[in-house]
Specification:
Arc Repressor Mutant, subunit A; SigE family RNA polymerase sigma factor; RNA_pol_sigma_r2; transcription; Rna Polymerase Sigma Factor, Chain: A; RNA_pol_sigma70_r4_t2; 2 domains; 191 residues
Length: 191
Amino acid sequence: MPVIAPWPAARPARPLGQRGDTDDAMAAGTTVDHLTETYRAHYKSLLGLAALLLDDTASCEDVVQEAFIRVHSARKRVRDPEKTLAYLRQTVVNLSRSALRRRILGLKLLSKPMPDMASAEEGAYEQLERDELIKSMRGLQRRQREVLVLRYFADMTEAQVAETLGLSLGSVKAYGSRGIAALRTAMEAAS
C-alpha cells in the first residue's frame, strides 16, 4: 500500500548548501508530468482492473478518471513518485467498492413490486391439497413419516436425517422411497 506523507510541518529553514537531494524529492512529491506519464502508460491496465470489479464500461471509466483526479490533488503528499501507480491501483479498488455499495443500497431502496396474489379459488385448492397431504402423511408408518418430514419439510440431507433418527443411511433411503411410494398411492386414491 502506498505511503502518503502528512502535510509537511513547518521546518526551520536550512541554508541551500546543506539541503539534501532526498529533501528536494520529498518536497516535490509526484509531479504533474510524472502523473501524465503514468496516465498514458497505465490507463488501460487500471481500466482493466476496474472492469474486473465492476460490470459496465461507463462506471469503470468514471472510477479510473476519479482515481487520477484524486491522485492529482494529493500528488504533493505522495512521498515516492514510484509508488504513484500503487496509489492509483488502491484508489481504483476503493472507488469500485464504493460504487458497488451505492448500487446495492440503491437496489435495497427501490420499491419492491407486490407479489402476484392467488385467486380465492387457487387458495381453496391449495388448502384442499394440503389437507389431503396431511391426512395421507398420518397414514404412513411412523419411520416413513419421520424420514419424509425431516428430509423434505425440514430440508435436511439424508445423512443429517440418519444422524437425527439414529438410523443407517441405507435405512433412511429405504424408508424415504417406501414412504414416497405409499404417499403417492394414498394421494391418488384420495383424488
